[in-house]
Each structure stands twice: as C-alpha cells, then as structure tokens.
C-alpha cells in the first residue's frame, strides 16, 4: 500500500513539475508615447515612410489588435491600469502630477504571476513613484521626476541601489539590461515574466546619434495639421500645439554660451507657455510651423528606430536561445501620441491618436501567425489576459476582461463600447478633464471641469473627429443611447461620482515621493 501511495505522489510531483515547465514565458515590451501611426504594421499614414520592421515581426508571427484603447491617456495612470487591470479611480493612480504615488501594496498581475511560480522582472521606465513590488528583479528609471533621461539615466536597482548609467543611450541601456537579466541573472528553471519598458520616444525626443542620418527627406503633414478646432471648444484651448507650445530644447536649438544653469533652463523651456521664438528672424508663420514639425517628427521617429532595433535584438535572442516557441511577446505603448494630427504633439485627449494604443502579441504555440483583430479592447484587459494565458485564475475584482479567446481564434463575446476618463489639469498641456464612451462607430465626450461641453463624432464618416455633431438635428437618438451607455458603464466600473467629486480629483494635490530618488 505504502509503495502505491509513494508512486502516486511521484507521478503527481513530476506532473506538476512538467506543467510548471510548460508554463509560457512572457516578455512584455512597452515604449513610451509610441503612436499607432508610427508602427508600420498598422499601415497608417506614416507606415511607408518610417517602417518598424522588427516590431512588425511580432504582428507577422502573431496577432495585431487594431482597436486597443486607453482608460486615461498619460504615462503613470496607464501603467497603473495595466498592472492592476483596474480604472484609475479604483487603483488610485489617476494623475501624473500631484496625485500621489502608486499604492504598491495592492494586487497587480506581476504579483499574481510571481505567486503562481513565475520569476518576474521589470527593467526601464516605471514612473509610479513607489518602488516596484511583485518583482524578483527591478531596475527602473528615477531621475527627471521618475521620467528618466535619454543620457546619464539614473536607475534604482531592486529598490535600494542607485546606479547612474553613463555609457549608453537609455534605449540601448534598457535593451542591454533586459538581455543581461535573461542571460545571466534569471533562474533558468522557472517560467519568467519580463516587463521591459523604454523611455523613448517620449519628449524631448533625443535619438541615439547613430540614427541621425535617418529621414533626410521632409515628411508630409497630416491632413488635420492646420485644424482650426471649430465646434470643439476644449480643443481650441489647448497648450500642445507644435506651432505655439514647443520649446527650444524640444527642437534642439543650441543655447548661447556662458549661461548659468538657471538661465539655461529658462532658455530651453522658453515656448512652453506660448512664448514666441524663432531660430532665425526670417523664419516665420507657416514656414516656422513646418520647420518645428520636421525637427520634431524626424527626432521622434529616430527614437522609434532605436526602439525597433532593440526589439529586434530581443526577438533574435529568444530565437537563438530556443525560447521563442514558448514565450509570449507583447509590444505596446503606454498610450498613443499626436504626430501633427490637429497640429499637436502629446496625448491626454480621447481623440483617436492618443486614445488608441499599439498592441500586438505573438505566442507561436497558440496564436496563429499573421492574424488580426478589430474588436474593442482596453489597457485594463492586459492583466487578465496575461494571467489567463499563463493559466492563473483571474481575481473577481479585476475590471478588465481576458481576450485570450480572441487571441486563440475562438468564438468570443465582443465588447460594445469602451469608457474613458482623464483628470489631470492644467498640467502640462491644458487638456480639459473629460470622460466619454466610444462604440467604434460613434464617440461621445463630456468636458465637465470648468466648462460644460459635449462632443459627438461619427467615426466611420469622420475618422479625424473634426465635425462635432452634438446638438445637430438627426443625432438626438444616438446621443441619448450613448449617454445611457456612459451611465451604465460608470455604474459598472464604479465611476458614478458626481461632477463635484470628479472635479475634486483634478484638484487633489498630493506630493510625489519619486523626487526623493532624484539626483
Ligand atoms: C513631461 C513633458 C510633458 C508630458 C509629460 C507627461 N514635459 O512633463 O510634455 O506631457 O511629461 O508625459 S517635458 O518638458 O518634461 O518633457 S508622460 O509620458 O509621463 O505621461
Ligand atoms: Ca507616456
């Protein structure tokens, strides 16, 4: 009898060990501010001019998601939503500026994976204030208010050791550290989940000089480059116009010699608040706007080229080490970005270029190569999806939904609308707080902070969201339906606060701790 039990135990243990071994690895690659239009796999308006062949390999070998959206289009809030699978008002991280830090004691998907036997690591941009929790290894950027810099990037390793990296551009450094962790530091007997996150192509768009020769030809303008914001009051009050709100540092204008540190800072920031400057008095008007745009877009896309190169190195490493078959590789960005659409840079709005995120995933064992999906997804879906793919059960309090069935080409129930809520104001670009809903066909937005404005767009007939149809005859019924949809989603996601309570969230002033790491 005893021997039978022993035998049974042995079989069970080896079965468990085998199952553990077979768990897929996860490499979650995220860049900062990488617009869908600048990922060539999407075949959008910049695709032919600025290809991203390595990032596209992930789509070619897996699935490209076309309609992935953000719940709150800025850095920290998107990252917090991704980690927790919950909206900003639930995970508590709703503003980058003066909204306090991420509550690191809460449940996150890396913690759940770690509990399930995964070895976890995060390398690169973090921007949540408090040190990462739920990771066996972390090396995250802490200087420049947690943003990190392109050069002389300061990292904190495992929450304690400060390291200033002085030999590489930040993209190359993050790529180097990620490969080093995979190759030398991890326990090769355990499944792993690596989050590998770039600063690029974030402002001030400083590329590695090796890419400076890319893009000698000028780029075309987006068809909304000279938008006059007619019918969209909130949009007309912005501070993110290429023409009027870019500073000298953004556009790499050399400073005069002999300035003190303070004077230099002031010189470089000049332009942020709409102060007029030109590099030559002869450059004015439309020619000046185009000059700024060309400098901006070229540097932005050179930063993207650096990310693309790094992604290629990662994919090559996985292949060369026999890790590609059983590793899930995700490529995404914390949100989208304006590359001259509406004449803008930056993000924050619920308009498509910043609301939408690139998202693609490959997992050769289970996801068919070269497939695409056009259903509505949210960044809060990433956590439950990754847990589901890893065979870890999804806690009930996660607000997102797994899209594993979509990835595996199975029948699924598609979402009929996505809900959005942005709070930060006036930092940095005077984007009015707003919430809204999109069905993919129509979008309704409400700006409620110090104006009471609604916008309705017919996305199929007006993809650039120029014509505000709110209050226009013939749109009463759809407006009512969308308002009801907002109400029901606010209830479902527990965002059914009063407008006063929402405004109070914008007004919250809580110091961030990340400055303590600053040097
Ligand atoms: C910095 C930028 C802003 C940008 C925010 C948020 N200014 O503050 O232009 O909107 O980051 O970006 S800068 O002069 O310091 O570059 S986010 O990616 O962290 O959300
Ligand atoms: Ca960002």
Structure overview:
The chain is globular and about 85 Å long. The longest helix has 36 residues, at 285-320. Strand 5 (153-157) and strand 6 form a beta hairpin. Residues 515-519 have low confidence and may be disordered. The relative contact order is 0.18. The chain folds into two domains: 2-209 and 303-416, Alkaline Phosphatase, subunit A, CATH 3.40.720; 421-518, 2-Layer Sandwich (Arylsulfatase, C-terminal domain), CATH 3.30.1120.10. It is α/β, with parallel strands linked by helices. Helix content is 30%, strand content 16%. The chain has helices spanning 2-22, 53-60, 75-84, 88-91, 109-115, 170-185, 233-236, 261-269, 285-320, 352-355, 382-389, 404-407, 476-492, 499-507, and strands at residues 25-31, 63-69, 119-124, 137-141, 153-157, 161-165, 192-197, 327-333, 356-362, 371-378, 418-422, 434-438, 442-447, 453-458. It binds 2-deoxy-6-O-sulfo-2-(sulfoamino)-alpha-D-glucopyranose and calcium ion. Calcium ion binds at residues 32-33, 75, 202, 334-335.
């Amino acid at each position: 009898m005893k021997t039978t039990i022993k035998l049974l135990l042995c079989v069970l243990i080896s079965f468990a060990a085998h199952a553990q071994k077979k768990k897929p690895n996860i490499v979650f690659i995220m860049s900062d501010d990488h617009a869908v239009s600048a990922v060539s796999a999407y075949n959008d308006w910049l695709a032919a001019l600025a290809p991203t062949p390595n990032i596209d390999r992930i789509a070619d070998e897996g699935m490209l998601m076309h309609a992935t959206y953000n719940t709150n289009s800025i850095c920290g809030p998107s990252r917090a939503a991704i980690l927790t699978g919950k909206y900003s008002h639930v995970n508590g991280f709703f503003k980058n500026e003066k909204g306090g830090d991420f509550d690191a004691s809460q449940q996150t998907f890396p913690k759940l994976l770690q509990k399930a036997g995964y070895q976890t690591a995060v390398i690169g941009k973090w921007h949540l204030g408090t040190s990462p929790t739920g990771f066996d290894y972390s090396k995250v950027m802490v200087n420049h208010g947690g943003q990190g810099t392109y050069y002389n990037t300061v990292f904190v390793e495992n929450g304690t050791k400060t390291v200033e990296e002085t030999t590489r551009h930040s993209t190359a450094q993050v790529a180097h550290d990620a490969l080093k962790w995979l190759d030398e530091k991890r326990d090769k007997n355990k499944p792993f989940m690596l989050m590998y996150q770039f600063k690029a192509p974030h402002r001030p768009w400083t590329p590695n000089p090796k890419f400076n020769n890319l893009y000698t030809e000028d780029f075309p303008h987006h068809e909304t480059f000279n938008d006059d914001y007619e019918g969209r009051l909130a949009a007309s009050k912005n501070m993110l116009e290429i023409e009027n709100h870019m500073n000298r540092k953004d556009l790499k204008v050399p400073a005069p010699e002999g300035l003190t540190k303070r004077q230099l800072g002031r010189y470089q920031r000049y332009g942020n608040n709409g102060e007029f400057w030109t590099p030559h008095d002869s450059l004015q008007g439309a020619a000046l706007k185009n000059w700024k745009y060309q400098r901006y877009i070229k540097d932005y896309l050179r930063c993207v080229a650096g990310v693309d190169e790094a992604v290629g190195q990662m994919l090559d490493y996985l292949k060369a080490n026999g890790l590609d078959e059983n590793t899930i590789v995700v490529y995404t960005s914390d949100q989208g970005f304006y590359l001259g659409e509406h004449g803008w840079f930056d993000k924050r709005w619920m308009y498509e270029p910043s609301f939408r995120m690139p998202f693609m995933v490959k997992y050769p064992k289970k996801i068919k190569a070269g497939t695409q999906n056009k259903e509505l997804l949210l960044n809060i879906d990433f956590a439950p999806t990754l847990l589901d793919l890893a065979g870890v059960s999804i806690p009930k309090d996660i607000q997102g939904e797994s899209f594993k069935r979509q990835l595996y080409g199975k029948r699924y129930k598609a979402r009929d609308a996505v809900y959005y809520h942005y709070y930060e104001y006036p930092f940095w670009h005077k984007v009015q707080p707003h919430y809204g809903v999109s069905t993919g066909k129509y979008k309704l937005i409400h700006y409620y902070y110090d104006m009471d404005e609604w916008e309705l767009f017919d996305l199929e007939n007006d993809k650039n969201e120029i014509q505000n149809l709110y209050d226009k005859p013939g749109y009463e019924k759809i407006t009512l339906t969308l308002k009801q949809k907002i109400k029901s989603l606010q209830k479902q996601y527990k965002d059914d606060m009063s407008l006063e309570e929402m405004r109070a969230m914008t007004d919250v002033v809580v110091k961030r701790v990340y400055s303590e790491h600053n040097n």
